[in-house]
Write a structure and sequence with these properties.
Blueprint (H helix, E strand, L loop, with lengths): L1 H17 L7 E10 H4 L14 E10 L3 E6 L16 E5 L4 E8 L2 E8 L5 E10 L2 E9 L5 E7 L17 E7 L4 E9 L16 E3 H12 L5 H11 L1
Amino acid sequence: MILIRRYILLLLLCFAFTYKAQITNAKITFERKTNLFKKFKGDNQRWLKEEDKIKIDYFELFVTDTASVFKPQESELKENLSWATSKNTVLQNFNLNTRYLIKTMWGEELHLTDSLFKRQWQITESSRKIAGYTCRKAVWQANDSTRIYAWFSYDIIPSTGPESFNGLPGTILGLATEDGGVVYFAKKVEVINPVPANFVLPKKKKIYTIPELKAQMEKQYGKEKWFKSMINEQFGIW
């Protein structure tokens, strides 16, 4: 009987040392690399220098078990080519199944609301380490020409990620287009309880639904050649 008790105690001690508690609250710092040569093709590349090929932006994702907010990291440093990439803020509310977006388009800050974006993910057996966490690879076929790769961690359980991404059994720590034109990777994961102020967004008198804004833009720019691809990139992928 004593031997059995000792054996059970030993098993419990081994479990206590090897078990890694799942995380529900965290702050995750992301680095985004955008290949501007791939984003701006043809004649648009004439003004780009080789040293400006890769533009780097930093973001923070605050995660709880009920909501997440993804926002640009604040910095006082002067940014080169600031207009070349977008910096969205996205608040996802898991309980209400809603998202609130702040996008800057043509120099104007637009506030939008919509339901959570639903995607059909295919989870693969491939895995890699990101910011110290083992992540499983998943694939989303956004459209005929765009495939998105995501790496999520089962250890950080809220179903969220950069931008409006979600829908996987864990938080996305890596995100990339198939051609590597846009890549997000977590650089640091801090297990903390985000303060409520992180989830308070600035007030705006005019808040659009995404269908409302798309309809308004269709009237103004629907005949332009670039309109369809721009709408798809802004609202169909990210």
